[in-house]
Design a protein that fits this description.
single chain, alpha+beta, Beta-galactosidase, Chain A, domain 5, TIM Barrel, 3 domains, seven-stranded parallel β-sheet, 15 helices, about 15% helix, binds 1-deoxynojirimycin, binds calcium ion
């Protein structure tokens, strides 16, 4: 990665305070719009508050850790404060921008108790803030608990999923903080999950809120390394961090000193779209540590995947009449990818272990899957095979085989793997310290084998893909797969994800389903129906609740450097809307949120990193609406061929999801167009510079 510093301005001012316990310190963002106050109160409790855009966001929120039984959330003394400013820029290997500004004011506050010192480092940017604890000393230490709170100053509108140590594949709830109940929490998750919820009311992060004054904030974390992932518990008197135990109760992490925790992050914005445009979480991560990034390829891919989810074929060979990952079928997908300009073919169900999901073997293909032949065939067509490692939660089994598993793929020219962690992790939680270390270890080891990783049922992304850009994408939300075999997603799900899960990092949602009513798979009788009345009353087993134009819009609205064209090749045959999926890039030099309201609609424009072309995607929830696009972001004195893929006037997500129109027009900067979005609808635009 070309990491460079254009301008480093470091003003370092060190104030040595006397050991007063009422010291107050204020750190502002460079534009002065965010003010963070940190103090140790009369009881010796370190606390902070945040004001943004003139509004109090967080008040009297606790800071501190309990380490080796010493509770540094009370009775501490503030020893030292240092303030500095950093301003520089860096270039990500891939991302939403070609270049990212890193401009913040930093305050480091040293706290002491019983000869133990922790430094709390605050970095305040224009788009939010992060803080973390550094435990000074040497040797091993046990972190017993973390005291961090995010006490909200107002009763905010909140987009949230259940607090959970095991899962994020939940339905979002939209309520005021005061309306969050245990019952609603349970509604967002399948039965049986409640045992992994640390508290009756709370949420996993990123959790996003709108204040009564109309400001936005999202709480999450950055650089999650060697520490458990956090949930938040909403108690009557506070909003407090909560983590899975590392083994014994009363221990969340075992660490070597000195040790820095992940950053606690609060992204802020005056508009909902500001959250999406923020690079706060990436900025708080370490620069790229990989010397060789040549094997990391942002791309669109297809795969042997949806056909198993809609039950046309199976992962397992044993007892199956239609095993998906057979050599001939994989070749069919390779041909389809090559014909349509896609970069890769994901192959799930190729290895032994799927029968009963036990003892997965990552170097033993099924008898009808010829790895040597397929690897040569894919190479001859310029297509990457994307490997797959499902663990079924048996992570120790996976760890034992990791080295061999990656070597096997490397030997066969495979440069990307999708990993999976379905179900309860044996002896651990998905989000405990051991699992966080496992997830991070896979990424580092994969890099040594020139392999990029896309993790499903992952630890939440926390910007580590800046440091290890072979961590290309991940799941960690209710994705498209749910539409194939469950009640699926809600109609506002896609308009919430860009402001919640996707803020944490790239999201492998797998858009692009064209057979939205699944009439070619699970709802075959539907095609025989004659009247609208019959169609209205048809008991769909499962379905995708959006229009086709909405699916196209997702390629721009959802950010990920790998995007799947998830439907079956036969469902794309003869459909001219496929052209947009072929054309849309996955790596961007610029990103602008044109118009958005969380849970309602979202329109984003992005500029291709390899050309001067722009792409726009827009989606709505269940409500029809009209969107005006002003092309102010285009280059001066240039004209663009604009191709608009929009909902037909008769389209809707329910009865007519596949009705769309394609219109072409020449567009210049300053022009505008009006687009009608159907209920559950959307649109996509390509702007090719002439
Ligand atoms: C769950 C993953 O999210 C999905 O993409 C995959 O197909 C199945 N597990 C099987 O590994
Ligand atoms: Ca999943």
């Amino acid at each position: 990665m070309k990491q460079y510093f254009i301008n480093i301005l470091m003003v370092s001012l060190v104030l040595l305070t006397s050991c007063k316990d009422d010291s107050k310190n204020t750190i502002h963002s460079p534009d002065q719009n965010i003010q963070v106050n940190v103090e140790v109160n009369k009881a010796g409790q370190p606390i902070y508050s945040v004001i943004f855009n003139g509004e109090k966001l967080i008040t009297n929120a606790a800071l501190g850790l309990k380490i080796n039984g010493i509770d540094l959330s009370s009775g501490v003394q503030m020893k030292k404060v240092s303030i500095s400013t950093v301003k520089d820029k860096w270039e990500p290997v891939w991302g939403q921008y070609a270049e990212i500004n890193n401009y913040y004011n930093q305050g480091i506050i040293s706290l002491e108790k019983d000869n133990l010192q922790i430094d709390v480092t605050f970095r305040v940017y224009n788009d939010g803030l992060g803080f973390r604890y550094t435990i000074q000393g040497e040797g091993e230490a046990i972190v017993n608990s973390e005291a961090t709170q995010f006490n909200m100053a107002s009763d905010n509108k909140t987009w949230w999923i259940a607090p959970c140590w095991e899962n994020d594949e939940y339905i979002y709830q939209t309520t005021l903080l005061s309306e969050i109940t245990e019952e609603l929490r349970n509604q967002s998750a399948p039965e049986g999950h409640a045992q992994y919820f640390p508290c009756a009311t709370g949420f996993n992060t990123p959790v996003t809120m709108k204040t009564p004054a109309g400001n936005y904030l999202s709480i999450h974390e950055a650089a999650l390394v060697n520490y458990p992932g956090s949930s938040l518990c909403l108690n009557p008197e506070n909003l407090e961090i909560n983590m899975a135990a590392a083994g014994k109760p009363g221990e969340i992490a075992k660490v070597n000193l000195p040790f820095s925790t992940p950053w606690r992050t609060i992204t802020v914005g005056k508009k909902a779209g500001d959250l999406i445009e923020s690079s706060l979480i990436l900025n708080l991560n370490e620069p790229n540590k990989l010397e060789d990034v040549s094997f990391i390829k942002p791309m669109k891919y297809v795969g042997i995947w949806w056909e198993m989810h809609v039950k046309k074929s199976t992962w397992e060979l044993e007892g199956s009449k239609n095993h998906g990952a057979n050599t001939a079928n994989v070749k069919r997908y390779i041909d389809f990818a090559a014909e349509n300009g896609f970069g890769g073919v994901l192959v799930e169900g190729w290895n032994k272990g799927w029968n009963g999901w036990v003892n997965f073997d990552y170097t033993q293909p099924y008898a009808d899957f010829d790895m040597d032949e397929l690897s040569a065939y894919a190479q001859s067509k310029g297509i990457e095979i994307i490997g797959h490692h499902e663990t079924g939660g048996q992570v120790e089994n996976y760890e034992r085989q990791l080295e061999d598993a990656y070597q096997y793929y490397q030997d066969h020219g495979v440069h990307a793997v999708k990993t999976g962690y379905v179900g309860k992790i044996e002896n651990h939680y998905h989000y405990d310290q051991w699992m966080v270390n496992h997830y991070n270890h896979t990424v580092k080891l994969a890099a040594q084998h020139q392999i990029a990783v896309n993790t499903h049922e992952p630890i939440k992304p926390s910007g580590l893909s800046r440091t290890y850009p072979n961590l290309l994408s991940g799941e960690g939300m209710r994705g498209q797969e749910f539409n194939a075999w469950s009640d699926g997603t809600t109609l506002n799900h896609h308009t919430i994800l860009p402001f919640t899960r996707n803020l944490a990092g790239p999201m492998d949602y797998t858009p692009g389903i064209f057979d939205l009513q699944l009439v070619n798979s699970v709802n075959k009788d539907y095609k025989k129906l004659k009247t609208d009345e019959e169609r209205k009353n048809y008991p769909f087993k499962h379905r995708v609740k959006s229009t086709l134009a909405h699916q196209l819009g997702l390629y721009v609205v959802f950010y990920s450097p790998i995007q799947m064209a998830a439907d079956l090749p036969e469902n794309y045959a003869g459909i001219d809307a496929l052209q947009f999926i072929k054309d849309v890039p996955v790596d961007w030099s610029d990103t602008k949120v044109l118009d958005a309201e969380i849970g309602e609609f979202c329109t984003i424009a992005r500029k291709d990193k390899q050309s001067d072309n722009w792409f726009v995607g827009g989606i709505t929830n269940q409500d029809a609406r009209e969107e005006t696009i002003s092309f102010d972001f285009l280059d001066d004195d240039a004209s663009y061929e604009c191709t608009l893929y929009s909902d037909d006037a008769k389209a809707d997500w329910d009865l007519n999801p596949t009705l769309y129109n394609i219109t072409k027009k020449e567009i210049k900067k300053g022009d505008s167009i009006q687009i009608k979005l159907a209920p559950g609808g959307g649109f996509a635009i390509s702007l090719i510079k002439k």
